[in-house]
Request: fold
Amino acid sequence: MIEKIKALLVKYREIIVYVIVGGMTTVVSWGCKFLFGAIFYPGVTVPTVAQNTVLSIVENVSGILFAYYPNRRWVFQSKDPDIFKEFSGFVGSRLGTWGLSYVLNLLLVNVLHLDYRIATVIVGVAVVIGNYVISKFLVFRKKKDENE
Reply:
């Protein structure tokens, strides 16, 4: 039984670690967003488009800055020596999913008038899935010689 569990942990290590790192990134980015909202927009639950944009930028910049290193080191175990190129690809991919996040947030908050904290959770699920797929297959993809 223990051997089966170990085998599953090895087989799914990347996804397990991604979920852990993603959880930490979520705590950091949402914490920054909600703290910023509480300080600068106290009592606001349905921010204006401008406020929603600022909150989205705070959330995504803090998430991108926090998430690169743990994704590189622990999730995808990248050994790419061109860190600048890799980081640029990471930022670019995260800006792409930020676009998705931004549009969904505007729709849920400013069109459907959903509380921005609830919308953040809903949008977060789509973004986490998108970030994993893009990071795995575009940003941190293994080179042929790394797989051997």
